[in-house]
Amino acid sequence: FRRVLFRSEESGMLNLFKKKSKSVEVLAPLTGTTLSIEEVPDPVFSEKMMGEGIAIKPTTDTVVAPFKGTVKMLMPNSGHAVGLLSEDGLEILIHVGMDTVSLEGEGFEVLTEVEAKVEPGDPLIKFDEAFLKSKEMDTLTMVVVTNPGDFQPEQFLTNKEVKAANDPIMVYKK
Hints:
It is a single chain. The chain is mostly beta strands. It has helices at 2-11, 43-46, 129-134; strands at residues 23-27, 32-36, 53-58, 62-64, 69-74, 81-86, 91-96, 108-110, 117-118, 123-127, 141-145, 152-156, 161-162, 168-173.
């Protein structure tokens, strides 16, 4: 019996009840080029005060859901940010531009609502790039994980051209 038990341990058969880790992919919420969060010219993001993440220099004007989940937070008066919860429990904040809250919603159209169930590619926020540029606002968009707890960052895909709801930008392990 001892020999059989030892062999089972060697072959990993007693690991049946170990919790298996799972990778959670966050797809691009916009088409554009990814950058390291450290490159964002706002210390709130570059120093990771909001959380670990990535930035996207967008070439499109519509933020879409990067995974299957639920809309948990919207900035109703400004429309510049949305908080999402994935089915796996990962929470992210998608924040369009810097200092865009000061526009009080001008140049933004919210396309969803709190507690809406979303699939990858579902539209969340549309912004008027020409208007934002006329107000000297950068459209650089930050995607940060706001509840790292049970999640460990595995990969940040920076300096890469990405297509919204198609290409992964971050991978976390649960």
